[in-house]
Specification:
Blueprint: E1 2-8, E2 17-21, E3 38-42, H1 48-62, E4 67-69, E5 77-87, E6 91-100, E7 106-107, E8 110-115, H2 122-135
Parallel strand pairs: 1-8, 3-4, 3-5
Antiparallel strand pairs: 1-2, 5-6, 6-7, 6-8
Helix pairs in contact: 1-2
Length: 140
């Protein structure tokens, strides 16, 4: 599965559009595990702004579970890593990878956000993060 988010701005800073296309595979459902004690987040190649946007969204969805920065050994933790596969001023592509200590590793679909006219801004980063969360089957 591949997700693409495009943003076109013309004329003024308020004109334009942001488009998110999702193609989910059949049977993809969220299944929150009752025994998850915390979420451990790792964003090794992400910018501070992208890391903050992802941490904020995971914190919102994981509430009331604590969200910790890796490395943070935690029994029964869900480990989530942001894998940035491409980054330029106007394109960001990546996916989430998640696992539990006693279970298999899962890889979400690639999500891409791009801007035709301007460098990516905070709004685009938040759209990217929402896209990642929407298409990944994190058990939150």
């Amino acid at each position: 599965m591949r997700v693409s988010i495009s943003r076109k701005v013309t004329g003024s800073k308020t004109a334009g559009f942001l488009c998110l296309t999702l193609q989910a595979e059949a049977g993809q459902t969220a299944n929150r595990a009752a025994d998850i004690a915390a979420v451990v987040l790792s964003c090794p190649t992400a910018s501070d702004a992208l890391r903050a946007a992802l941490a904020s969204e995971i914190t919102r969805r994981a509430d009331p579970l604590p969200v910790l920065s890796a490395p943070a050994p935690q029994k029964n933790a869900l480990h989530v890593t942001l894998d940035v596969t491409r980054k330029t001023d106007d394109i960001l592509e990546g996916r989430l990878i998640w696992w539990r200590a006693d279970r298999a590793r899962h890889t979400g679909p690639l999500v891409e956000v791009s801007s035709m006219d301007t460098p990516l801004n905070a709004q685009a980063l938040h759209g990217f993060v929402r896209g990642l969360m929407q298409v990944s089957d994190l058990p939150l």
